[in-house]
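Appendix B, example 12.
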Amino acid sequence: MKKKYIKVVAEFNEQGKLTPLEIIWDDDRRYEITHVGEMQRAASTVGGAGYKFEITVEGKRRSIWLEDIKFDKAIGGRWFLEVQS
């Protein structure tokens, strides 16, 4: 397994809740996230830690992580998932 960084379309609602909506693959294919389940702080088995989101895409359950990255004066993050090597 290895870490693959991905583009994710997400939104924050008025209460500040973050919801991932769509994954955009390298070749610009878009995959709608049809269900978001549990979200928790977690470490990935391939390295890295952050917030793990249990999602459903095309009827399959997957996990994606929002990895913590801190810059000098800004806070950001990158999305990744675990894929076969």
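The radius of gyration is 13 Å. Residues 2-83 form one domain.
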